[in-house]
Design goal:
This protein is of the alpha+beta class. The protein has helices spanning 36-39, 74-94, 104-118, 146-152, 181-184, 205-212, 227-232, and strands spanning 30-31, 34-35, 97-102, 134-135, 138-139, 161-165. The protein has a domain at 30-179: FAD/NAD(P)-binding domain (3-Layer(bba) Sandwich), CATH 3.50.50. It contains seven helices and six strands.
Amino acid sequence: MTEDGQSHAADVIICATGFNTSFVPRYPVWAHGRNLQDVWTGQALTGYLGVGIPEFPNTFTLSGPYSPVTNGAQLIGIEAQTDYICAFIDRFQTEPIHSMSVKRDACEEFTQHVAETMQTMVWTDDCRSSNNKYHKEVPTTWPGSTLHYLEAIREPRFDDWAFKYSKGRNRFAWLGSGLSQAEWDPTADLGYYVRQRDDSAYASRRARSLAIAKTGSLPPRVLHRQPKLALAE
């Protein structure tokens, strides 16, 4: 609904709100009888990995609360958030999903982890930054490095999200008519699973992360630890 009172149907709404460290949107965002402007006013900031808002269906943020905005180059974090959101769009396009939103208990546990982890980091030192907004004395920036953030959101934790399927639609409708995509493609290799060598993805998250980081490609470097983190260990 625009200011002139007209209602417009849309599949996707992308809002470029500019740089605002309060996170409070400049327009009403309603869900379940609540306005996000009111929810995020004052110290009531809630967020999930910088991209999700609990109990606000089909709503995603870029550089939202707990994003790596003071941890290094911000652009790479936004690109990672975009990839993360696209994973949900891909699932939305494939399955008969009506809406999806972060579960509140997942958000609360995430915030609790941030609060505990921040005690070992420089963001809880006596320093001033317009980006380090506090929610219950917890900075709303990412609790770690930008590289740490990239690993954290590389694979969506779909079990932290509540999915609601369209009324009257079977959630397994995505199985289709029993034929694979390859069989519908006249140029596809129907024996693609026969390979000359094992080129499958690593089975463990650690192995995948090390492969993506090109481990072993550079000479060893001296690892520097934060003083507070060293004391905590």
